[in-house]
Amino acid sequence: MPLPRGMYRCGAKLTWEPPLPAGLRCTNENPFVPDSQCGLGQRLQGSRCVCVQRESCLSEPESLCVLNAIIDVAVPVSLCSFHAARCHGDPLLYMNEGACNPADITKLEWARFRAKMSSKSSAQLPCNLDTCYDWETCSASKKCQCKAARECPRTGEHMFCVKLTAQMTRSLTLCSTAALKCINQPFEILHEGDCSAGS
């Protein structure tokens, strides 16, 4: 089996299509196949499901970009590593399929914001590899999409005092605050909770 896995064929011009990756190698290792009786990142051991050891995923190709919330950095991981880490309770937040793009600061900042606010969300809905929160819906194509601020409730358990412009502060729900962040609306969170009457 070639690693990284993929299909390569000899084209009409006698070149490989797609071009062979520099690190291509052959291996006799069996690919990670999730156990159908257990959850993602688990395997059957005897009669019970246990988390897959992280080390058992090292030979798998890195196919996802995730935010490691402990070190606050985007890192590439394999699907096996992602599910194993989640099973072990590691704080990984899905960003995208494919390679991490260090130049995409906006995507990284959004992932950091989602990670920071995720514990305050009353909704944590699985959506393919991602998890959607209060301010998101899971689309038909299984991607978390931001709600518009007008779709968010006006009051909620988690309120924030947000400075929108030099002269305007407003009390916003977690959903509304995240919806503004999602569309790159500039604002500053002054503090958690309602704005005081004197603001």
Automatic annotation (TrEMBL):
<dbReference type="InterPro" id="IPR048828">
    <property type="entry name" value="C6_KAZAL"/>
</dbReference>
<protein>
    <submittedName>
        <fullName>Complement component 6</fullName>
    </submittedName>
</protein>
<keyword id="KW-1015">Disulfide bond</keyword>
<dbReference type="InterPro" id="IPR003884">
    <property type="entry name" value="FacI_MAC"/>
</dbReference>
<feature type="domain" description="Factor I / membrane attack complex">
    <location>
        <begin position="37"/>
        <end position="102"/>
    </location>
</feature>
<dbReference type="Pfam" id="PF21288">
    <property type="entry name" value="Kazal_C6"/>
</dbReference>
<keyword id="KW-0325">Glycoprotein</keyword>
<keyword id="KW-0677">Repeat</keyword>
<feature type="domain" description="Factor I / membrane attack complex">
    <location>
        <begin position="126"/>
        <end position="197"/>
    </location>
</feature>
